[in-house]
What does this fold into?
Amino acid sequence: MELEASQVTVRFGGIRAVEDVSLRLGRQEIIGLIGPNGAGKTTLVNALSGFQKPRSGQIRLAGDDVTGWSPDAMARHGVVRTFQAVRLFQGLTVAENVETALLSTGADRSAARAHARDILAYLHLSERADTPANGLNYGDERRVGIARALAMEPKFLLLDEPAAGLNIGEAQELGQTIARIPNDFGCGILVIEHNMALVRDLCERLHVLATGMTLVEGTPAEVMAEPAFINAYLGAEA
It folds into this structure.
């Protein structure tokens, strides 16, 4: 089973956000989607998750054309994403935020309450379970965003900069947790991330975008040795 973008193009007026990009993500695989700021990474994830309809090309899930499906429909069929800006219910506790996601899958309240605690323990958030969401630091907010996404029982989990705002130790710990998710939850993961040490250690493949187009793809070692990657990505970020 795969989630695929096939020759996807997204434009906003005359601005080319994504141009003729093809990408595939398999179950229990972790790939990194990287590139300079403004390269089109979030736009491509929006297309994969139903938040943006491509101008041309196809989004396919398990071989079926799902181009233009709504975000809700994509989530019900197993494509779940997180956001750079975590959208928690600020008036609820951490546990209640995860319970809400579970209830949306049809779980009853008692089962949702128990499973929410299990997911929070998995993400090392048990001590925050009864904390109001508006009392979290930035790093814990991002972990709760991942917890809510896992509660949706994804087949494919799309993470938009999960380590943003974390220090080196926190990012390493989060990377170790993400690395276990495909085996423990049976889902493929696509990660947008600027932390190169994290994606190098975490991802099996990297897909690099620059100015909306695929620049290079391959294993982390292959990609990071490419002069085009060094010039377009590291040069832009230096």
Q: What stands out?
A: The chain has a mean pLDDT of 91. Residues 129 and 205 are 34 Å apart (CA to CA).
